[in-house]
Amino acid sequence: MEKVKLLTATHWIYIFMSNKAFCATTLNPNMPTADDVLKMEIARVNLHLPTVRPTLSQLLAEEKPRVHLRDGSESHFKRSELEYVESLLDDKEVKLLRLPIILEISTVYRGYFRVRGRIEVKVVEKILETYDELEEKTEGLYPRYLLPRVRRVLPTTTTYAFIAE
User: Fold this and answer.
1) Same domain? 17 vs 90
2) 141 with 112: CB under 8 angstroms?
């Protein structure tokens, strides 16, 4: 007695012959791979990221400093927070720093978050009181338990990004 059952959702074929079960997968070229699904999910959870990151000087010049997000909404910056970040930097850096600062949560660095960019790292390290003028880093890796400390000081000028590497 032979039975063939095709489950379209999972594309598994079950073949029952003589009380023995055999299982085979069909290869559907239109079905997304696991990597494709992961990339789509990461993109979905990162919809809160800005489409463009303006400089600190541009935001300070605006009456209502804000940035447009990928999901179509807007994120507003507190002026007092922008002025605090400005106080941490020199004039040249104010013109170069792009906000919000991205705090990367990665699948590679479990238990840590990463910040990229020389000026961005400087701001985070000044908040964490670990800044060393002699050491100019372009990337910083910090224990994840320090995230609330950074976000408490800079709630509107920092944001999370979820990265799958």
Assistant:
1) no
2) yes
